[in-house]
Amino acid sequence: MTLKLWLAISILFSFFISNVIGAFVGVNIGTDVTNLPPASDVVALLKARQITHVRLFNADAHMLNALANTSIEVIIGVTNEEVLGIGESPSAAAAWVNKNVAAYTPGTNITAIAVGSEVLTAIPNVAPVLVPAMNYLHKALVASRLNNQVKVSTPQSMDVIAKAFPPSTATFNSSWNSTIFQILQFLRNTNSYYMLNAYPYYEYVHSDGIFPIEYALFQPLSAVKQIVDPNTLFHYESMFDALVDATYNSIEALNFSDIPIVVTETGWPWDGGSNEPDATKENAETFNNNLIRRVSNDTGPPSQPKNPINTFIYEMFNEDKRPGPISERSWGIFSTNGSDVYSISLGSSAGISGNSSTAFCIAKPGADENKLQDGINWACGQGRANCSAIQSGQPCYFPNTWQNHASYAYNDYYQRMRSVGGTCDFDGTATMTTQDPSSKTCKFTGSSNPGGVFPPAAFGPISATSQSSSIRAPVIVYTLAVFFALLIA
């Protein structure tokens, strides 16, 4: 291969690595869960649902080990309890990085450290050491030659903004101006990004009816309910966009204009007490699915249309150990057995619709679980079905229910044995269907659909924010021009 050809191919390869990936939706993983699955099962669920970005609230060793060699991008958290010690001691910061970052890279794709959680409003007495903690951690990353891969930032709530509407006049609460200025200066100097926790649910509840719920749920607004910033005349189709724009404008009010925002927490609770009537499964399903569609548009809010809004949903499982109202324990999108709390299209839809010419043997909905267990034992034992795919960590393990596992085992037995008299009965717990029960990651015997489809491995970490298609288009033209010029020169 000539030098010119090698150079041209290298340029084209680098371009596609850095430009084909758009905005993402990730998930937060909390651990205040009574029956938290093993880390290997959690990662299997992430892979099954094609979730490529996660945020851990702490540097959990089991999760960091399980995430190795998956290409899943990981934000790890310094807990609020750890911030003070790290902010007072460069050696403590270096020890933290060595133990929780350097020890796992490059196998585990750690891309950022979130220093604390809403420190300014949750533990204001620690605010004086927040920026020193960020600086010490960054210097430790530099010493470990990880600073280009791992960014440092700190998640803040909307409470640090004095008044979020209209977004054009939003500013940070003046009592925090000095600290926030230092945070923004650090983010700019280290090419990092602002971590924002933005919850339309709380903004809607606390608005006392000023804003319609459709606005909070990304639903269309009638002409008389349109939300318009009177200063810019920007139309806001969702409260989510308005909160992000309010934060951008607050940042610009302190004369910073080149710091992108990543929403590190957002979501909607699916259950609540009698005084929380809007915390319902229907609203949670509507919010999160509309959120995913919104982020997937790969565009920013009205004032920053070219800055996509990378976002993490709060959260993967219900943290049932959390104190407070019922809603505090009801944000999870998955049950600990891997089934959906409600239908959600995060990553890639688990089901495959459409008709099939093949008949499948599956467990009857609502069948007695004891009978299903007996059926599984017989199919996987005497029936000689291949049940390896429903073992922990394997592609058909989730959802971890008797119904799901029995369906797989029953069908595998039936497809293997029907030609020699095998039946689909299993003591009345089985039924036939022409609807293919396969998922993107779990292929049932007899399916004509391809199974085991996972997203391609990432070629190393990608930037915290991705360019929108409107930016990428001219870059594509330029890159291809350089490529062909090199070929013909």
TrEMBL record:
The subcellular location is:
Cell membrane
GO terms under cellular component: plasma membrane; plasmodesma; side of membrane
What is the membrane topology noted in the UniProt record heading this document? Lipid-anchor; GPI-anchor
Query: Which top class of enzyme applies to this chain?
Result: hydrolase
EC number(s) stated in the UniProt entry for this protein: 3.2.1.39
Q: Which Gene3D superfamilies match?
A: 1.20.58.1040, Glycosidases
Question: Which UniProt keywords are given for this protein, alphabetically ordered?
Answer: Cell membrane, Disulfide bond, Glycoprotein, Glycosidase, GPI-anchor, Hydrolase, Lipoprotein, Membrane, Plant defense, Signal
One Pfam family name from the record? Glyco_hydro_17
Ranges for domain X8: 359-444
Q: Where is the signal peptide?
A: 1-22
Superkingdom per UniProt? Eukaryota
Q: What's an example of a GO molecular-function annotation for this chain?
A: glucan endo-1,3-beta-D-glucosidase activity
Record field: catalytic activity: Hydrolysis of (1->3)-beta-D-glucosidic linkages in (1->3)-beta-D-glucans
Gene Ontology BP terms: carbohydrate metabolic process; defense response
Cross-referenced SUPFAM superfamilies: (Trans)glycosidases
The entry sums up its family as follows: Belongs to the glycosyl hydrolase 17 family.
Q: Which PANTHER family match?
A: GLUCAN ENDO-1,3-BETA-GLUCOSIDASE BG1-RELATED-RELATED
Q: What is this protein called?
A: glucan endo-1,3-beta-D-glucosidase
